[in-house]
Predict the structure.
Amino acid sequence: MARKEMVSRSFLINTAFDMMCQEGLENVTARKLAARAGCSTQPIFRLYASMEDLWRELFELAVEYFEDYYKEMPEADNPPFVNLGIAYIRFAMEESHVFKMLFLDEQRWGKSLYEMLNGREGNLTKEINAAKAAGCKSTGELFTKMWIFIHGAACMSITGDYDLEEEETVRLLRSVYTAFSG
């Protein structure tokens, strides 16, 4: 009779994801994961060829996690890119380890920033189309300028250098949109 598998792939990846959210990707090692999962490292390497493979799967989960986070944000009546910007900045504040993995790490396993922000539902495409519909002639340039501000604010929130209330952030993002959309 074959031995029953005690540690599933799903259990391991979910345990690793929880670890990454709490401690950062750099702390998701085979030994620490095994300790948290209550097993040896053997099941990890039976299910994953390497830690790199596990991290790749963690990255995909993190992309979906951000996408779900954005989808659950209440929609406010704002100009294009403002709601997405607020979600991105808030995500950096609330989920700093996941944010760092997705948006500050050089390793993105072939995904561009555009792909991650656009997601399965075309979030970024919708924002670009809304900007076009509002009369913006250069949506790519607008996005670049807006994203420099948005990404900078998100990074500053991680280091504790961004302490503006959300209403002030919305006002600033609206101002940036108005300045750059013309």
Q: What stands out?
A: The chain has ten helices and no strands.
